[in-house]
Amino acid sequence: MLNIVLCDDNQSFLNGLEEMLFKLFIKHNLDANICFKTACPSKLLEYVKNNSVDVLFLDINLDNRNEGLSVAEEIRNFNKSLHLIFTTGYFEFVLEAYKFNTFDFLVKPISQESLEDTLLRLIDYLDNSNNRFIKINSTTFINQDDVHYIKKDGMKLIFHTKDNEFETYNSFSRIKTSLPSDFVRCHKSFIANVSNISHVEANTNTIFFNNTSKCYIGPRYKNEFMEVINVGNSSNNLDGINYA
Questions:
Q1: Could you tell me the sign of the dihedral formed by the alpha carbons of 72, 96, 2, 28, in that order?
Q2: What is the CATH number of domain 2-131?
Q3: Assessment of whether the complete model's pTM goes beyond 0.90
Q4: Confidence band (pLDDT; 50, 70, 90) for 179?
Q5: Domain spans, the chain
Q6: Could you give the 3-state DSSP secondary structure of residue 182?
Q7: DSSP states of 53-92
Q8: Is there a contact between 4 and 32 (Cβ–Cβ < 8 Å)?
Q9: Would you state the CATH architecture of domain 143-242?
């Protein structure tokens, strides 16, 4: 699912943008959600720092000054991959806005057609580029960072995230080539995202994740997997390994 955030100091525009996006989600059967909207830059920064956000629609002229550019600059200090779409009625900020790795720039008043064009180009980009998103089907993409583990269930793969499960017909051999190095085979039926592991119980061959979900380590993969865990323990989220 694409997690989308909206920020604009005009509440009427904010509500209208939300309504237009919902119509497009339904029209194109997109697995997307507006998870947060606000008129307050500080609340926006707090939310983006503490939650998974894939797309941000951000007004440049917040509080009658170009504070949106300052907000974008601060966001880029801790989030390089969020897809940023600026909204504004001021053309003079276009060139400056693009230096923040901006996906698109929508000039107010925003029409349904221009918003639809931007949204569909974003979906096409996610579908065809080498990025942090995993394609589940033609309308569903999930952020790699949100995945805790992948389970093989017959001909299906089940992607377990903090809040959801996503199913697709695929194989480990095919999906593995598109995954970053954080995803490590730990069992004939599981691939674990080591970045989201909270701790490992080596004596029971159990891997626990940040939301207390779990998967398992198979004998064939244990030595290699534990080597990866031990080497990377200082650079990921692991609380520790329990050998008791």
A1: positive
A2: 3.40.50.2300
A3: no
A4: confident
A5: 2-131, 143-242
A6: coil
A7: -SEEEEESSGGGTTHHHHHHHHHHHH-SSSEEEEEES-GG
A8: yes
A9: Beta Barrel (2.40)
Tens digit of each residue's pLDDT (9 = 90 or more) over 73-102: 999 998 888 999 999 877 666 667 778 889
Report how far residue 181's alpha carbon sits from residue 229's, in angstroms, rounded to the nearest whole number: 12
Kind of pairing, strands 147-153 and 156-161? Answer: antiparallel
Tokens 């194109």 found at = 28
Residues 6+ apart with CB under 8 A from 241: 199, 200, 202, 226, 229, 230, 233
In this structure, are residues 161 and 146 in contact, taking their beta carbons and an 8 Å threshold? yes
User: Of 87-101, 124-138, 191-205, where does the model show the most confidence?
Assistant: 191-205
Q: Rounded to whole angstroms, what are the CA distances from 68 to 13, 39, 61, 72?
A: 15, 11, 6, 6
Question: Which residues have C-beta within 8 Å of that of residue 96, sequence separation ≥ 6?
Answer: 69
